[in-house]
Design brief:
28 strands; 897 residues; 5-stranded antiparallel beta sheet; alpha+beta; flat; Beta-Lactamase; 6-stranded antiparallel beta sheet
């Protein structure tokens, strides 16, 4: 008894069985959700308002700090400029002692200056305060070159060199400094030196924190200052000195709204930020550092008020939710009594025997529930009649199902439950019963299943479309599948119709392949086709023919309209050819001019022939080829040949005239310039011989210098003539044995200086294709230079070797001589340009210029590498560089490698 009472009580609160409980649950949960949503919305709105107010106050304070910091840095630069405005700092009017006194006074007058120094243009300290950093080279500082032209503010850094001269940072570690620099100008207004100051970072840090503490509204906030690399120079101890990596800061810096961010020290803060270099113009020609100023305030205090308001709104909402639940329980009880009575009537109708008429329920209540009961009885009778009709329809469907020529089956729960004879024949089964019960995935390929079947195995529902399946004997067949869903005894089933289209698909693929091949061939060859029926005169053409006519998308048009696309002469010739084709059955081959609708003109070749059926011409078929480019290319080749011949004649005449002028110049140099030089040298020698005892030592030295200058001038003239003649004449291309040539030249050099001990190595089998005379001069100059510049090396070593680089064969001459500085490499190859003094190594500066000319004459390359005191290596190749592939980047090698 107690158990039944308890069950009734539980059923009253079961939402699945009781409408009242369902109403109470729905209304109660709705109230709870509304309360939670309202509390959340109030919390978010209040947080936004609080963050906005806090952000506005913090941004105003941060803007004041930004302006103050910018003015302080610029103020130091102005004091430095004011101190150097007096003349004499560069031109020597003021002594080093006077400059040092001025620097000491500037250091004492401005708090924060740790060190001041006057630095020359090469970065060396000339005068400084105290004894700090007298030997520091400032040229390596990244800002020094800019400081020679305008005032510069550097970055903050840790000074390891001043760790013992300056007090350490208050929080520990190396002292932190900031470099300031301005150019110092001479009396002509030209920069002659740089005034550099080390500013103690602790002063800026203390001022910024003091300004932050002076404002009561932001006194509890933290100030964070970072440089361009994110290094924290001002900030709370957990962050100070660390690198701040926060991509979210981009949402804060230089934006009007504040944002709550999670910081690396594990706390959340309402944050705002500004860039120092966007403080506005404070001094002309001064670029402020790329520092970031951040102000953050603990988000917990900001959230406290919003959280309290959220809790009050949530409590009020839950009270309303409880009231709604009680009201819905009472209202549901009032509405559910008639529904319970109606449910009893429906169960009585449900228990009637199918196929028999149910008992008349008798008189009913006159209200809506009585009308519903009567309607249920009538519905029961109508349903019984419909079931009889469906039974008859099922019999007719089964007859059609069995006799259908298409394969038809029914799938349910991932298995075949029904199949006709055509389906058994399609799958190669003896009879339809062999397919009943088979899983669908064993009869159809995986790609034919959609993977969302109704049965226990996934992928058991067949998709409509074209599929390839395997018969039970393994033969592949292509089928076209149609699927429709229906319900059988309350369960979902699928009616599948399969039509075998294997033969049809083979024919379609063959036709499609032939069509695509024909279209591609037509497009590649720019050849189209058309046909004109006898009656009516209608023209049909291919896509390529439509493109040639400038009418893509049109596949057919009247013959008269098609003829309008040709110029009058071509139209007349084509019309006559068409009439002869229909009348005399003649073929034709014509070159026609086509005028397209966009105004362009094309040349086409048309070949046509008549097609007969039963001895009568029924249509004309023709091929059409666009030959515009071919005809234009032929015209262009003819014009190019004519122009090229004219250019060759003009260039030959210019080259002949240039050679004649060069011969005239060489004649003038060899005759007109040598006579004055011989006179100067001869008279100077005669004066020494005749008047030598009367001249003092200085006079004889001057005459001797005139003689030496005349000899050097003569040598320069000889070198200039040799340089102008070395690459003249016809260029021969011989296979030259470079190894044998280098051995002969080095042996000649050894005979000229038998006392020198030079170790040389020549790789065997080295060769180059070029003019033997020019290649001899090239090797003579390169080996002569290597021999000359190793005179001071002990032991002297030369190496002639072959290299394979960039797909070309190179010859390299390497030595361990004096070498050269690569920053002067652009002077190599220029006549009379030398990298060593004449008293160190004699020479005219003609040898490498000759080498460069010979290499360029052959279309080759020359590369040079050197290092002072470590030797040099010259590489050359006479093989032209390969032509780069179309679209590749063009690169030009530096002449010195």
């Amino acid at each position: 008894m107690m158990e039944s009472t308890l069950g009734k009580l539980l059923s009253l609160w079961d939402p699945r069985r009781n409408v009242r409980a369902r109403f109470a649950l729905v209304f109660g949960l709705t109230g709870v959700l509304l309360a939670v949503a309202a509390a959340t919305a109030v919390f978010r709105f209040e947080m936004q308002q609080l963050e906005m107010r806090v952000g506005q106050i913090a941004r105003l304070q941060l803007q004041q700090m930004q302006r103050s910091l910018a003015l302080r840095l610029v103020g130091h630069l102005q004091e430095m400029e004011r101190a150097t405005s007096l003349p004499g700092w560069v031109d020597g009017t003021l002594s080093d002692l006077d400059i040092r006194v001025a620097l000491e006074q500037l250091k004492l007058s401005q708090s924060g200056f740790v060190w001041l120094g006057l630095v020359d243009q090469d970065g060396q300290v000339r005068v400084s305060t105290g004894e700090l950093q007298r030997l520091v080279d400032f040229s390596a500082r990244p800002w020094f070159q800019l400081a020679r032209r305008q005032p510069v503010i550097g970055n903050v850094y840790l000074s390891d060199s001043l760790r013992y001269q300056l007090p350490p940072h208050p929080e520990g570690g190396l002292p932190r400094l900031l470099d300031l620099a301005i150019p110092v100008y001479d009396s002509n207004g030209q920069p002659g030196a740089v005034l550099i100051a080390h500013l103690g970072w602790e002063l800026i840090e203390a001022d910024s924190k003091a300004m932050l503490g002076a404002d009561t509204q932001t006194a509890a906030a933290d100030l964070v200052v970072t440089d361009a690399l994110g290094q924290v120079w001002i900030g709370p101890p957990p962050l100070n000195g660390q690198r701040l990596v926060m991509p979210e800061l981009d949402e804060v810096i230089d934006r009007p709204a504040s944002v709550t961010l999670a910081w690396p020290d594990g706390s959340e803060h309402v944050s705002v930020g500004l860039h120092l270099n966007r403080a506005g113009p404070v001094l002309e020609r001064v670029d402020l550092p790329d520092w970031t100023l951040l102000l953050r305030q603990d988000a917990r205090g900001v959230r406290l008020h919003a959280t309290e308001l959220q809790q009050r709104v949530l409590a009020l909402g839950l009270g309303w939710a409880l009231m709604f639940a009680v009201l819905s329980w009472w209202l549901a009880g009032r509405l559910s009594r008639p529904i319970v009575a109606l449910a009893r009537t429906a169960r009585q109708l449900q228990n009637d025997t199918p196929g028999q008429r149910s008992a008349d329920p008798g008189p009913q209540r006159p209200d809506e529930l009585g009308q519903l009961t009567s309607a249920l009885h009538q519905l029961h009778e109508r349903t019984r009649d419909q079931m009889q009709q469906r039974e008859e329809m099922a019999q007719r469907y089964l007859a059609l199902f069995e006799e259908s020529p298409d394969a038809v089956c029914v799938h349910q729960d991932g298995r075949v439950v029904l199949a006709n004879r055509a389906c058994a024949a399609l799958f190669g089964a003896g009879e339809a019963r062999a397919l009943i019960g088979r899983p669908v995935h064993t009869l159809h390929p995986p790609e034919a299943l959609d993977g969302s079947g109704d049965g226990p195995v996934t992928g058991t529902r067949v998709r409509p479309g074209l599929h390839t399946l395997r018969r039970l004997d393994g033969e592949a067949r292509e089928v076209e599948v149609t699927v429709s869903a229906f319900f059988d005894r309350g369960q979902r089933a699928h009616h599948v119709v399969m039509r075998d289209v294997t033969v049809q698909r083979l024919i379609e693929r063959d036709l499609l392949a032939l069509h695509r091949l024909l279209e591609r061939t037509s497009a590649l060859a720019h050849v189209g086709g058309w046909a004109c029926e006898r009656e009516p005169r209608q023209v049909t053409w291919t896509e390529e023919t439509a493109r040639i006519h400038g009418q893509p998308g049109r596949s057919a048009l009247p013959a008269d309209e098609a003829l309008l696309a040709y110029d009058p002469a071509s139209r007349s010739a084509l019309t006559a050819a068409i009439e002869r084709g229909f009348g005399q059955q003649e073929a034709w081959d014509l070159i026609l001019t086509l005028q397209r609708g966009d105004g362009t003109t094309r040349s086409v070749r048309m070949q046509g022939l008549p097609v007969q059926e039963r001895g009568r011409v029924v249509r004309l078929e023709a091929a059409l080829q666009d030959v515009t480019e071919l005809r234009e290319a032929e015209d262009a080749v003819r014009a190019l040949n004519a122009a090229l011949e004219e250019r060759v004649q003009a260039r030959t005449a210019e080259l002949t005239a240039a050679n004649a002028e060069l011969d005239s110049f060489a004649y003038a140099v060899s005759h007109d310039l040598r006579a004055p030089l011989r006179a100067m040298s001869g008279f100077s020698r005669s004066l020494i011989e005749d008047q030598g005892p009367r001249l003092d030592d200085e006079g004889r030295d001057d005459l001797q210098q005139i003689i030496l200058a005349s000899q050097r001038m003569a040598e320069l003239i000889d070198g200039l003539l040799a340089l102008s003649r070395i690459t003249r004449g016809d260029l021969r291309h011989d296979e030259v044995d470079v190894s044998q040539m280098a051995t002969r030249l080095l042996e000649e050099l050894q005979r000229t200086e038998p006392g020198r001990q030079v170790q040389w190595q020549i790789d065997p089998g080295l060769s180059q294709c070029g003019d033997r005379r020019m290649l001899d001069a090239l090797m003579r100059n390169l080996l002569g230079n290597a021999w000359k510049y190793t005179a001071r090396s002990t032991p002297a070593r030369l190496h002639v070797q072959g290299l394979r680089q960039d797909g070309r064969d190179w010859i390299a001459i390497e030595d361990n001589g004096s070498g050269f500085d690569m920053k002067y490499a652009q002077r190599l190859g220029k006549p009379f340009q030398r990298l060593h003094r004449i008293d160190e190594f004699p020479g005219l500066g003609i040898g490498l210029a000759t080498v460069y000319r010979i290499v360029r004459r052959h279309g080759g390359d020359l590369q040079a590498r050197g290092e002072p005191g470590r030797g040099a290596r010259f590489m050359f190749t006479l093989t032209p560089a390969p032509v780069p592939a179309p679209g590749a980047d063009d690169h030009e090698d530096h002449p010195a490698g």
